Sequence to fold (341 residues):
Amino acid sequence: MTSYFIRRFLLIIPTFIGITLITFLVLQIVPGGPLEMELMKLRMGGTGGETGSTQLTSANIPESALQEMKEFYGFDKPVHIRYINWLGNLLTGDLGKSYVHSEPVLQVIADRFPVSIYFGLIGFLLTYIICVPLGVAKAVKNGTSFDFISSFLVFMGYSIPGWAFGALMLIVFGGGSFLDIFPLGGFRSEDFSQLSFFEQVWDQIHHTILPVAAYAISSFATLTILTKNSVIENLSQDYIRTAYAKGLSDRKVIFKHALRNSLIPIATGIGNFLGIILAGSLLIEKVFNIQGMGLLGFESIIKRDYPVVMGLLVISSLLMLIGNILSDMIYAIIDPRIRFK
Fold:
């Protein structure tokens, strides 16, 4: 099995090159790149007198200035050379400099990283802490009123997009038409640094509850029903009847035997959550005014900030590839019968 995981890790290299190469080529082909946008700004700006009536045209822009701009954005070389240079810089830990923020890409991403990892991890842990026990309880009480009521609530939450649920919560609890309990958004209060330690803890919790609820609500139904169906399937197996025949209690049979085997299909999504945690949710971040990775990625694409787009792609693709291997490892840990060759 060790050789299998070694091969999987080695396959990360060509897969990563393929992902970044295709994305890099697409970004170069898409019209309206950073050079075109900069030229448009120059042409729209004009160079006239006080009235600014004289407009720049392509003929008014000196060739030397165009060449300097091409060199600045790296468009003075063929696309394959540009990719090789970018890949070489990546190996040294240099992701380039943001066109929009005028800062190193790593610094731009690092400023948003804590926000995304904070909300992503809390949402991930909260989902599993609630949904796995809830799915087990629904399996044990299958067909009862508890099962029907909980299914209704779970699927009602699933039918509501996270950003819409967040907007609704802000209207109800954010000082809109009803209650003024939670802030309207943001990661922390503006005077956060001036607060005492316990006030900072409370302020952070205060800004966390609504966004995390919006992050987690859409995944509740999938994980809960998956856990329920998996537990029900395992409770009907022969080894469960054997365990009951040996006189084991319901708790031991369910949690020691049935639940462990039921976790196998649930484990498939754990590795992929690494990428999802950092990706964030654009609409939720927009609703709550959270400066996370999702909003950064969207703004970078709109503003053609290609170095930041590629930097986010590097992080998300590596996490996704490693997450898939992590899922296989969790498989093997949960079920010793699984052997990868």
